[in-house]
Amino acid sequence: MRTIILGGLAVLSIFNFAFAQYIGPNAVKTYSTVEEVIKKPVDGAEVSFQGYLLKKVGNKKYIFSDGTGEIRVDIDNDIFPNVAVGAKTKVEVKGEIEKDFLESPEIDVDIIQVMEK
Fold it and tell me: Which of 25, 35, 49, 99 yields a CA-CA distance of 20 to 30 A from 10?
């Protein structure tokens, strides 16, 4: 019985390490608002926002707003949802910041999900 309990605890500790995340110095920050990105963009940093695609401004380019600000997002056609998405469709976007020298930041979207219509 003792062996089973110890084995179970060992398995649980493995799962805890699998979901652990480093939060010390030099940890990669995940931005949760557009306002944060606009104030201090870090090229390659991860983002996760909920908000709206306000308008299309180019090939694969949209203006996204989460209510704290607006930012350009780049969404490849192969990851764009297979449903109609308009300015009133709430979506979640996850991706990373692209910040080129002397240009405003944009988000390279890896995942987009429709939250509600």
Answer: 25
